Amino acid sequence: MLRADGAGEPTRRAALEVRALTKTFGGVTALDGVSLSVERGECHALVGENGAGKSTLGKVLAGIHRPDRGIVFIDGQMQAFNSPADAARAGVGMVHQEPVFCRDLSVAENLCLGRYPRRLGLFYSRRGARVRAEALLARIGAQLDVGQPMRRLATAQEQLVQIAAAIGTGARVLVFDEPTSSLSETESQRLFALIGSLRGRGVTSIYISHRLPEIFQLADRISVLRDGRLVGTVARAQASEAELVQMMIGRPLAEYFPQHLAAAPGRPLLEVENLSSPGRFSGVSLQVRAGEIVGLAGLVGAGRSEIARAIFGLDRRASGSLRVDGRALRLGSVRRALRSGVGLVPEDRQRQGLVLMMSGRANFSLVILDQLRRLLFLDQRRERRTAEDFFSRLNVKATSIEAPVASLSGGNQQKVVLAKWLACRLKVLIVDEPTRGVDVGAKAAIHALIDELARAGLGILLISSELPELLNLSTRILVLRAGRLAGELPRPAATQENLLRLMAGV
What we know:
Blueprint (H helix, E strand, L loop, with lengths): L13 E12 L2 E12 L3 E5 L6 H8 L7 E6 L2 E3 L4 H7 L1 E4 L11 H5 L6 E2 L3 E2 L1 H14 L15 H14 L4 E5 L7 H16 L3 E5 L3 H7 L2 E6 L2 E7 L5 H9 L18 E10 L3 E9 L3 E5 L6 H8 L7 E6 L2 E2 L5 H7 L1 E4 L3 H5 L6 H6 L7 E2 L2 E2 L1 H14 L16 H13 L5 E5 L7 H16 L3 E5 L3 H7 L2 E6 L2 E7 L5 H9 L2
Parallel strand pairs: 3-10, 3-11, 6-9, 9-10, 15-22, 15-23, 18-21, 21-22
Antiparallel strand pairs: 1-2, 1-4, 4-5, 7-8, 11-12, 13-14, 13-16, 16-17, 19-20, 23-24
Helix pairs in contact: 4-5
């Protein structure tokens, strides 16, 4: 019988069992009494919004974090991990979202770290390391030049090395934390085939992801976390995406049907005529009206992001005519674009939209420093008050506005990027891949925010590779192909099939 403290006999068939796990960081509860059982050879998915506790649970299982309370059983044996080495000895390995290796060492040296083969018991055996590394890779069906340095490997190859290292330590339970976040579709399918092969050999997989299609492709059962608590566990065959989303965010996703469509668009806020940039795009003309979300679709390399950068003044080679709210805007200057009321949420928020080691407050105020100035000095009290107001409005989950944005989840980082533009009194906002790398809950919140901005009278130019996102939010969709506009679809005619035909030139 299970006692209140989580003690009791472990489940016999379970490869992994956790009971009443609790973990806090400062004043934030990341895990709150989570109990879970995973059978041998099962692929068990963990899903939830960013900040729900998925990765924290994975890191507790891998010995990276120590729980404040609770018990972990591996193959029926109670465990208390003080380090990843303890977890490895108990048969638990982890494949991290961002692989961490000694990048200047070879593949063989990385695979043999901590247990280098020796000659005569004293000297490092390079040949022995190569043989051992090749044998470890062969166990998972992989072939690599183990003599090359890790820095030359692609992300998919780095993950193979991680898996080989874990299997080499005798891992019977593998934790995969967002393993496909940096992989192509082909590389992802190879990874899925490998996970299937490992399952056939009795290896248990804990698969953490916010990508529901791959969850339904891989998992036997799915556990949903929300705000650090286990909401429930369902068999894949008995679950639907809509049900999982509602479990993850606590409400139906249908609540976010765009409401800006109820009103007719207003006056033109952005008018672009014959915009061109050598080698990137040419002859692009478009218009965005107040209260309108205009989608911009196209295959990779079609010129979508390049057009956004040119409108925002980041392309000094761009030519053409640009008007914002009826007034001409000369190209090639970000300062002029900002003063005219144009903002840009870039596709790479970490490299182009944020200063990661600065606080949320400092990132938020970067584009409104003139508004916060008192004579020659920054009014820090007003800055703090304004940042707290916007963080509250956007429900940014952070320990405080002083926390570095590098410590926030992807969805909350994107909310910080959006918050700074909301405070800037814009007329036109260009949003490039607004939900890339965020979970379904954050995606729904960002969609609702974009819709709210359109209802407030902004003109939104929305760029996205996710066709459902464009189809759901856009008033109409423009399609780019090879740097030129290939056509326009009003909302009633905008289907995935019609979009793909225009994008591919069929």
